[in-house]
Structure formats: C-alpha cells, structure tokens
Write a structure and sequence with these properties.
Low-confidence stretches: none
Number of strands: 24
Mean pLDDT: 94
Strand order of the largest sheet: 18-19-17-16-22-23-24
CATH superfamily of the largest domain: ATPase, nucleotide binding domain
Number of domains: 2
Shape: globular
CATH architecture of the largest domain: 2-Layer Sandwich
C-alpha cells in the first residue's frame, strides 16, 4: 500500500500529512504564512513563503518512507515566475479585487454571454483575464520578465519539486483562461479578443487533477527529506480535492467547506447557470462538473473577530458567544467583498442593529450567525430543490455548537465528515489513485462516509427564518453605499 506525502497549500498556511491509500492520516504538520493587503482590494502572498512552509511541514513528518507526493491548494492565483523559477512579483490571490476597472472594460469589449459560454462563468474582478489586463496596464515590465504563469499554489510547489510547469483543469476553470468544453487553454484568437494576447506564451501544461507530472528532483528532495525520484502528482485545486474527499465526487451529495474562505458544492453532469451566482468548475472526470457557490471570507471572519477582541483562542471566543441567546443583531461577513451568490468586490462587513446593551459575546455570536446565513444564501442559490442532508467539512467544523447553528439556520440535518479538517488531503490522494488506475472511480468507500448526524432545532429555525429575511435584505440596501465608499477611497 502506497504511503503518500500529501500537501494542501491553503490561504493561511500549508498542511502536510503522511497518509495511507485509504486516506488514513498517520502524521500531520502545519505551517502558516503572512498575507499582505492594501487599500483598493490588494491581497498578495509570497510564493517563497509557500515553499518554506511546505518544506518545513514536510520535514516535520520525517517523510523518508513516503512513496509518492500529491499536492492541492488555493486556486485562481496569478503566480509569475522567471525562467529560473524565481517569482517576479508577489502572488496576486484569488480574493484580490483591484482589477474591477479592467473587468468592466473586459465586459465592454467582449459580450458577457460569450465569455460565459466559453469559460462557464462570469468574468469579474477576480478573473485572471481582468488581473492580467491590470498587469498590462500597471506593470507591463513584470509580464515581460515572466517566463511562466501558474494559476494555483499547488502548481508552484510542484514546479519547484519537478521543474515542470503544470496546472490542473479544475484550478484552470476558476481563472477564465480555460475553455470549459474542451478543457484546454483559450485559443490565441480568444486571448486577443480579451485583450491579453501576449499572455498565452506563459501558460503551463494543462492536465486533469490527479495526474502524475514527473518525479521529485534531487535538490528539493533533500530539502524535504524525501527520496529523490518518487512520483509527484498534481491534484485538483482545493475545491476539487475537498469535493472528492467529502464524498461528493459523484452526483447527489452536496457539502459545505468551511475554511478561511468557503463554499457549498456538489458534482453534476451539467454546468451551473452563471446568473444564479453559482460557478462551474471542471471535475477531474472529463464529462462532469463541480457546481460551487464560493464565499470569499468564511471562517476568516472568526480570525478577524479573534484578533479584534483579543480572544485567547477561537474555541473560547466561540463558546462564550454560543452561550448567548440567538441574536437580533445582524452581521454581513463580506470583509473582502463577495463572489457568490452575488459578485461585488466593494461589499464589506457590517454590523446592523447595534444597541448599547450589546456585549462582545453578542457581537461574536452575530458574526457566527452571519457566516452561517451566508452559507444558507449560497445553498439556496446552488440548489433549486430542497435537500435532506448536508455534509460539513474543513477546519471550521471544530465547533460542534457552530455546526448545530448551521443546522438550525438552514433547517437541514447536517453531519461532519470524518477527519473533516483533512478532506482536501484525502481527496487529493483519491484523485491521484484514480488517475493511476488504483481506484475505480471518485466515490469514497462507504466506511469513509459514516458520520454523526446533527438535527436542526425547529424553534431556533423559526427565529432564524425571520433573521434570514433581514439578512437577505441587508446587502441590497447597502450595495450602493459600499460602491460610493469604495469610489471615495480611490478618489474616483
């Protein structure tokens, strides 16, 4: 049985684990890294921080017995490397929204419906088309110096391990640069219509998620303390890997991923309708799709609240908030804008209904409820028929009380996936095994899907139904104000 070294290069840090082929984690490690933000929607990281975190986490596991490496990670990034593999600028993250003017110019130049048919999704400020247009306008010398454009954090780590520039089709489908039907990069003519003709020379080799791309080279093998020459697999990007690891790699099993960012998703045999606010990603299986409603900031709201209030730990802060009765205070969790069910780079967080009696735990409870309302909103957009069950995954599931709140707010029974914090790693290994022919399909074994069920409380659900109506009304009421404030910030 193959022993896997699996890595997830996430938004706030890198997780590494030694895993058996059945997804059982033997040892795990984690390293975080900073994010740089600035006014105007700038969100950046350093690819060298990713590498250092991955190497440190891998070494902690003493991975000399690992027989293969598989990598997943955050998607929809602009990672520009020179011919020697060194970064020519910081990474522009998926949540960076600075290119809103370029997105508007793109929509004026190319009929939005044409882009939807081609790419499967609307192309807004988060699109790599808009971000590349921004670079052409503001940093043309950066693009001139670049030899490679990688679009996912896993791509960058795999490149340094193997010397091969490769991207997976799931990650590529988040960028706007891939034809969702052919699962190939946009043609030269299409790139020219989008105003980024010169970018085509930078594109990496494109493979289905889970593919073996090469073997680890001696120098990075020494840095990670693995044997040189073991195979390296590029898994689907994080949403794809989590979909597989949550047991949703086949149709009929919706789930919610709760990390710094988050999403609600399921596997389908058809594309989503872009006007629903739902995105279509390429499934590793060519004829299938992953329909996903992504939230730019999910449990990242908890990180913000913890820092704001100086809480000793997330658990203590959340427990104190859950001890309060359900709130009438509302919180909008759009700290970095939002992608789904609506796309608005100018949306921001807000408390609504503050009174002198409100305490710190009241505010934190409103944050917890606001994030759960956002998941309900995403779920309503994703599925047009009621569901009976929702699987929860990701590190945000550590609080059983907050998982109960999600059940109460959605009115749906929920369960927490086994080893919920490692579903992405489990899905990455499954994708590699399917690609190798060691697993027959993308379904998890029944034993891996057994979870405890949390039933919604009907009385609390009735209260939350009323609050949810207010939540749904709040953003439309503030939308123009958010835009005006953003214009004032930029001097427009």
């Amino acid at each position: 049985m193959t022993l896997w070294l699996a890595l997830d290069i996430g938004t706030t840090g890198t997780k590494a684990a030694l895993m058996e082929a059945n997804g059982q984690v033997l040892r795990s490690a984690y390293r975080d890294y900073p994010t740089q933000t600035a006014e105007g929607g700038v969100v950046e990281q350093d690819v060298r921080d990713w590498w250092q975190a991955a190497a440190d986490a891998a070494r902690e596991l003493n991975p000399t017995d690992a027989e293969a490496i598989v990598i997943t990670g955050q998607m929809q990034n602009v990672i520009l490397l020179d011919a020697s593999g060194e970064p020519v600028r910081p990474v522009i993250l998926y949540s960076d929204s600075r290119a809103h003017a370029e997105a508007a110019a793109l929509q004026a130049a190319v009929e939005p419906e044409t882009l939807r048919q081609l790419t499967g999704n609307d192309q807004e400020a988060g699109s790599l088309i808009a971000k590349l247009r921004w670079l052409m306008a503001h940093e043309p010398q950066t693009l001139e110096r670049a030899a490679h454009l990688l679009v996912g954090a896993a791509d960058a780590i795999a490149f340094r391990l193997t010397g091969k520039a490769t991207s997976d089709t799931t990650t590529a489908s988040t960028t706007g640069l891939m034809d969702i039907s052919t699962r190939a990069w946009l043609s030269a003519d299409d790139l020219a219509r989008c105003g980024i003709a010169s970018a085509g020379r930078l594109f990496a080799n494109l493979r289905s998620g889970g593919s073996q791309i090469s073997a680890v080279l001696p120098q990075p093998a020494a840095a990670w303390q693995v044997r040189p020459g073991i195979p390296v697999y590029l898994a689907p990007g994080d949403a794809g890997a989590a979909t597989l690891g949550a047991g949703s790699g086949v149709p009929g099993y919706p789930y919610a991923y709760i990390g710094t960012s988050g999403w609600v998703a399921f596997t389908a045999d058809h594309r989503a309708l872009p006007e629903s606010g739902v995105f279509t990603l390429a499934h590793p299986q060519p004829e299938r799709f992953i329909c996903v409603a992504p939230l730019l900031t999910a449990a990242g709201n908890f990180d913000w609240a913890k820092g704001l209030f100086g809480a000793d730990s997330h658990a203590a802060m959340i427990d104190a908030a859950l001890a309060q009765p359900p709130a009438r205070l509302l919180y909008l969790p759009y700290l970095n804008g939002e992608r789904s069910p609506f796309s608005d780079p100018f949306a921001r967080g807000a408390f609504i209904g503050l009174e002198p009696r409100h305490t710190q735990p009241d505010l934190v409870r409103a944050v917890l409820e606001g994030v759960a309302f956002a998941y309900r909103h995403a779920l309503d957009s994703l599925l047009n028929t009621p569901i009976a069950h929702l699987v929860l995954t990701g590190g945000g599931t550590r609080s059983a009380g907050w998982c109960q709140m999600i059940a109460d707010i959605t009115g749906v029974e929920v369960s927490i996936a086994p080893d919920a914090a490692n579903v992405g790693l489990r899905g990455a290994v499954l994708a590699a095994r399917v690609a190798d022919g060691a697993a027959p399909n993308f379904a998890l074994a029944d034993s891996a899907q057994q979870t405890a069920v949390i039933q919604p409380d009907s009385a609390r659900h009735a209260h939350y139904d009323r609050q949810y109506r207010h939540f749904r009304a709040a953003y439309p009421a503030l939308k123009s104000l958010f835009a005006d404030m953003a214009a004032d910030q930029t001097g427009a």
